[in-house]
């Protein structure tokens, strides 16, 4: 039934976009003069086709999310299908990114080549500019105006034109970052809802891959945007300085300083400083360009820039951070006793599961040279076994989140006649028998030391602030969490911190009070 629903949704979307797989989309050159470039036009067509595919899949996902809310009984099936579709969207966005990079390169090369011909030819400058730049762009695009070319050095004007050519690339980086951020938020929601470790691992892998892609996009945006801002700002400042517009230059410096202060205030709140910086300084730059257009009496360029300003003000660029706290899916269980055998030949004692992440305590009932019958353990359950490196059969019971719970189970087992039950613990797959460790000396406590960063994620701060512990900065790139009354409590918190900050050095140390 679910498959029928899915197919009907897909059919509805395809029907809503007639001919999307049959006829290629009609595209126009983004820069006049490149219409005859076959590679360029082919890339634009492929980009348009990919956009149609992405939009179609997005519609399917949107409808399936509504179906998921209306039909909670099939939540798992819908969630799986949504994940698969979002994976296809992820692949499409990657392909579009590669296309956009090549499209931008062709456009920049064309602009610079035609600019070089205009600057170095023997014809009058105004005549060459009219031949190289279409009238439609010469009026509305500030950078294409001949006045700027004639009153800037060839090198400065070339850098200004290159910066203008990179603008669409910066916009593409931002759009891809926004789309990925929305997918990250959906993945984080799905991660909290899934019920199995396999589903959670799949989502977490995709989440981390997408986070990595967004870091790359943010770095690319930062590099591109710094070049755009620096070269445009420099060119406009040179121009207005020649015109004696010190008031405008002073005002723009104040706006830039205010943007820097706003970015500093947002640094701990937003998902990407690079994205926030782009929008804050883009507003400053558009204001600067508007002043240049006003001084030069370029009415149509000024109108165009006002439209850009309106668009910028409508964008909420303060994207919140998306954090996922890794779930371990540890199976905890208490110790109980039964007069009816829980384990038989058909249902033998299972092997003890060792989790690669997280902390779990168990009680070791005994170590034997050979395999033992379940009756050996006085009706206790659940039971598990492991064969150690020496070939010994080790039998365990229970599964506990804290040392205190394990200690209570140990006391209960002693009351039921077990001579020497021992509390053991696995931390991220590492085994320790606590009975073989020396007791902590009086006056000795533990704390957690974190090094390798100047800031911690919100998830790490929440873990550190849990319970009675405190988080403190103790120097450049170093933090301390504590103190803890026992090493086991400190180890448990440290394990949770390592899960959300895997790249940092996190260790538990004993301190003397």
Tell me about this structure.
With 513 residues, the chain is α+β, with helices and mostly antiparallel strands. The chain has 3 domains: 2-233, no CATH class; 336-436, Sporulation related repeat (Alpha-Beta Plaits); 444-512, 2-Layer Sandwich (Alpha-Beta Plaits), CATH 3.30.70. The longest helix has 46 residues, at 75-120. Helix 1 packs across helix 2 (38-70). 58% of the residues lie in helices and 13% in strands. The chain is elongated, with a radius of gyration of 32 Å. It contains 14 helices and 11 strands.
Protein topology:
Elements: H1 2-16, H2 38-70, H3 75-120, H4 125-132, H5 135-140, H6 146-151, H7 154-193, H8 197-242, H9 246-266, H10 273-295, H11 299-314, E1 336-337, E2 359-368, E3 380-381, E4 383-387, E5 393-400, H12 403-415, E6 422-427, E7 430-433, E8 444-451, H13 458-465, E9 470-475, E10 478-484, H14 487-500, E11 505-512
Antiparallel strand pairs: 1-3, 2-5, 2-6, 4-5, 6-7, 8-10, 8-11, 9-10
Helix pairs in contact: 1-2, 2-3, 3-4, 3-7, 3-8, 7-8, 8-10, 9-10, 10-11, 13-14
Number of domains: 3
Strand content: 5-15%
Q: Average the pLDDT over all residues and give the rounded result.
A: 82
Radius of gyration equals: 32 Å
Number of strands: 11
**Structure class:** alpha+beta
Q: Tell me the strand order in the biggest sheet.
A: 4-5-2-6-7
What does the main sheet amount to?
Answer: 5 strands, antiparallel
Shape: elongated
Q: Tell me the helix content.
A: 55-70%
Q: Please report the number of helical segments.
A: 14
End-to-end distance:
65 Å
Unreliable stretches: 1-22, 116-139
SSE pattern, N- to C-terminal: HHHHHHHHHHHEEEEEHEEEHEEHE
User: What is the chains' assembly state?
Assistant: single chain
């Amino acid at each position: 039934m679910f498959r029928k629903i899915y197919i009907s949704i897909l059919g509805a979307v395809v029907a809503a976009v007639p001919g999307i797989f049959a006829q290629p989309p009609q595209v126009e050159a983004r820069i006049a003069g490149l219409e005859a470039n076959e590679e360029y036009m082919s890339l634009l067509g492929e980009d348009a086709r990919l956009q149609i595919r992405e939009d179609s899949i997005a519609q399917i996902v949107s409808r399936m999310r509504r179906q998921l809310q209306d039909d909670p009984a099939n939540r798992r099936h819908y969630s799986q299908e949504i994940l698969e579709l979002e994976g296809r969207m992820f692949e499409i966005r990657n392909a579009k990114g590669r296309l956009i990079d090549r499209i931008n390169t062709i456009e920049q090369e064309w602009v610079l080549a035609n600019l070089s011909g205009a600057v170095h030819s023997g014809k009058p400058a105004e005549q060459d500019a009219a031949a190289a730049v279409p009238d439609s762009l010469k009026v509305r695009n500030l950078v294409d105006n001949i006045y700027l070319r004639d009153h800037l050095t060839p090198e400065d004007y070339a850098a200004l034109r290159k910066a203008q050519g990179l603008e669409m690339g910066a916009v593409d980086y931002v759009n891809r970052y926004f789309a990925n951020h929305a997918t990250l938020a959906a993945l984080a929601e799905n991660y909290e809802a899934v019920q199995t470790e396999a589903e959670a691992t799949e989502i977490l892998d995709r989440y981390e891959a997408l986070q990595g892609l967004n870091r790359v996009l943010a770095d690319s945006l930062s590099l591109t945007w710094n070049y755009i801002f620096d070269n445009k700002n420099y060119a406009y400042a040179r121009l207005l300085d020649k015109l004696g517009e010190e008031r405008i230059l002073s005002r723009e410096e104040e706006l830039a300083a205010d943007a820097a202060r706003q970015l500093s205030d947002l640094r701990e709140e937003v998902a990407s400083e690079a994205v926030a910086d782009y929008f804050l300084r883009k507003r400053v730059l558009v204001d600067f360009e508007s002043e240049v257009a006003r001084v030069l009496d370029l009415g149509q360029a000024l109108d165009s820039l006002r439209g850009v300003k309106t668009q910028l003000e409508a964008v909420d660029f303060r994207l919140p951070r998306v954090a996922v706290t890794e779930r371990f899916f540890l199976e905890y269980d208490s110790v109980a006793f039964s007069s009816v055998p829980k384990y038989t030949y058909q249902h033998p004692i299972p092997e003890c599961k060792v989790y690669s992440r997280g902390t779990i305590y168990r009680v070791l009932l005994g170590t034997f040279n050979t395999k033992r019958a379940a009756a050996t353990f006085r009706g206790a359950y659940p039971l598990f076994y492991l064969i150690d490196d020496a070939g010994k059969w080790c039998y365990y019971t229970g599964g506990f989140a804290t040392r205190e719970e394990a200690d209570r189970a140990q006391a209960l087992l002693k009351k039921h006649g077990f001579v020497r039950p021992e509390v053991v613990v696995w931390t991220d797959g590492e085994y320790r028998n606590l009975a073989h460790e020396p007791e902590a000396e009086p006056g000795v406590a533990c704390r957690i030391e974190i090094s390798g960063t100047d800031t911690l994620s919100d998830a790490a701060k929440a873990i550190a602030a849990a319970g009675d512990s405190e988080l403190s900065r103790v120097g450049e790139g170093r933090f301390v969490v504590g103190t803890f009354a026992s090493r086991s409590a400190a180890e448990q918190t440290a394990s949770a911190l390592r899960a959300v900050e895997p790249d940092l050095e996190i260790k538990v140390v004993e301190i003397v009070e």
